[in-house]
Design goal:
- The protein has 8 helices and 11 strands.
- Helix content is 43%, strand content 23%.
- A hairpin with a 2-residue loop joins β10 and β11.
- The protein is of the alpha+beta class.
- α3 crosses α4 and α5 crosses α8.
- The chain has 2 domains: 134 residues, Jelly Rolls (Sandwich); 80 residues, Arc Repressor Mutant, subunit A (Orthogonal Bundle), CATH 1.10.10.10.
């Protein structure tokens, strides 16, 4: 958790102060909401284990998934500006978070400048992620969108010390399609197509990346395959 959520290089005394403001651990079962859109903002949530999805409900009453979060990431930053959450966050499996009261964290920022600088980096990464999602949905073909999704998951698991080429898809194919702006049928066709091309192996929710370099090239747009029928 310290390696992923918090700044490296803090003095032991500063880490101790940070640990003291972290509130209770909260367990959530699969499909249990962590917070809902419109609720007052009080805490940030550091994911200890498990996976989450965030989504918004549009004017037509349809859900649009805005991201998937895993251990070592922070949830709730969307609410800082307006003091209310702008999306729902739901556990994709049995999970646990640490509650971080934001008022106490703000007080600590003034005492530990390195912590504030790191928090700004986290917020910048979140902005970049949202911009990348807009590019994903706006300009990329289906094959490139899916390659970006797999490469992103691979990098995030590698940063946590897990295999970068073999991992479980904790989200459903329907959720993946919703996030990428594709139908569930398109996701199934893409998985089958990537298997035929020798890019991946798939066994239920377990995915093995057989050609990570080619997937990265597809994600970057430097290698293409013919469009799906």
């Amino acid at each position: 958790m310290h390696q992923l959520c918090l700044p490296m290089g803090l003095e032991d005394a500063d880490i101790e102060r940070l640990d003291q403001i972290i509130g209770k651990r909260r367990r959530l079962e699969r499909d249990e909401p962590l917070y809902k859109m419109g609720e007052p903002f009080r805490n940030l949530y550091a994911v200890r284990f498990g996976h989450f999805k965030t989504y918004q409900i549009n004017a037509a009453g349809e859900a649009q998934i805005t991201g998937f979060q895993m251990a070592g990431e922070l949830l709730g930053m969307d609410a800082i500006s307006a003091d209310r959450h702008h999306c729902d966050a739901v556990a994709l499996e049995d999970s646990e978070v640490c509650e971080i009261p934001f008022a106490h964290l703000q007080d600590l920022f003034g005492q530990v400048p390195a912590l504030l600088r790191h928090f700004h980096r986290i917020m910048s990464q979140e902005i970049t992620r949202e911009q990348n999602v807009m590019l994903l949905l706006g300009n990329m073909r289906a094959e490139q969108r899916f390659a970006v999704f797999l490469v992103n998951l691979s990098a995030r698991y590698a940063a946590r010390g897990y295999s970068s080429t073999r991992f479980q898809l904790r989200m459903s194919r329907e959720d993946i399609g919703n996030y990428l702006g594709l139908t569930i049928e398109s996701i199934s066709r893409l998985l089958s197509r990537f298997k035929k091309l020798g890019l991946v192996q798939v066994d239920k929710r377990e995915v093995v990346l057989l050609e990570p370099a080619r997937l990265k090239a597809m994600a970057a747009g430097t290698e293409q395959c013919s469009p799906m029928a």
